[in-house]
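Hi Y.,

Following your request, here is the sequence exactly as I used it, all 462 residues.
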Amino acid sequence: MNQLGLSQYIRMIILMIDFFFLNLLLTVLLWHNDFSFNDGSSVPTWQVWTVVLFSFVLCSRTFKPILYFRIIKGYEIAVNVVLLALKNCILAGVLFAFVFHFLPVDFFFKLYGSFCLVLLVLHYALRNILRVYRKNGGNSRSVVLVGNTAGMRQVYRELTSDLAAGYLVKGYFAEEPREESSVRYLGTFDDVVDYLKDEHVERVYCNLSLIDSKQFNDVMNFCENHLIRFFAVPSFSCSIMNHGTLKRMGGISLVAMRKEPLTQLHNILLKRLFDIVFSALFLVTLFPVILLVVGVGIKISSPGPIFFRQRRNGQMGREFGCFKFRTMRVNMQSDVKQATRDDPRVTKFGRFLRKTSIDELPQFINVLIGDMSVVGPRPHMLRHTEEYSELINKYMVRHYVKPGITGWAQVTGYRGETRTVEEMAGRIRQDIWYIEHWSFSFDLYIIFQTVYNAVKGDRQAY
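Below is the corresponding structure, written out as tokens. Let me know if you'd prefer a different format.
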């Protein structure tokens, strides 16, 4: 069996295991539930079973159990599982309500809540089993590298950083062997084709800067004619290679500096739609109660307004007024000086608001009117943008997208005061990483992590 076929079998096995556990949970719940109408009649068990399992079959046609992907992050597995359970719940609920004209909310909450929890445990366990399996050579991809530049060494690190990826790097070709290399030296560029004829190789990564056009074409054509996946690593600087993305302009190939998912219209619309719905629901439900309670606390703690509005830089550097609950005594330094630990300007009640992140909640107004997004790089004070844009390379890249109430930098240890340029540079790196790797599921994970951090307490919040 070829490796591509084996991956499809792994996907099928995962779906079958998910299907089995859904059946098991459904059996247990149906044993204790009876769906009765007012006239005494009830929904037959087999009809409930049909609706739930039919929904699973429909969802599984478009669902990819990504835990078997070669390079995948742990949080992506969690988000994937939650979305599967949610899609199943919504579809089954709609079908049930349409067919039987009522919806047993409690039953669906128990079924798909427990299904989600079981799949989380199960998928992480299967990922670890797959890691061990691939570590021992199963479902692996045999790889050779052509070139030994810094870029090719980065390719090697990416391929081997996670054992669950299952990439077996047999070695590399170069004009001369690299000193103290842990990778096996296989020969010069002239030896590549002969090696591929004699050895089983499934992927070739070839650097373009160290090989002439004839050698390159010989290797590429051999791979194409012998079902070996061929990848050309651009001969640009390592920085561009790591972050660039290939684009077409008519008949010309161009390399953009980075991939930006939020330049695509469907992603822009999806993110904006979520921002509008999420912020509107919050502002008409929870926010009035929070405003009443917090407003009284602020007025008691110190004289001054309930809200604090500060000029900050938004998308493409545009200025906007960022709303917050006031946590400090009214002072002349609020627009130029960050809050520090034990800052005397912060009131006792304000310290509580900062610790719990409640002070940021008025920014949902900014989200609704379009100045901000729920998730994105945190907006900085005008003075900080002016100062750090001169000190930190690529600082302004973070302004390609709308700023957010929370962001990737904030949930990975870069929240609050930045005491040094190095700390700010770390925050900028995380912001740029978010821009390059945006996805809707990534936003959902950041929101979840933000709530989790707020509940457990964040030592950076002061």
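DSSP finds 16 helices and eleven strands in the chain.

Thanks again,
Q.
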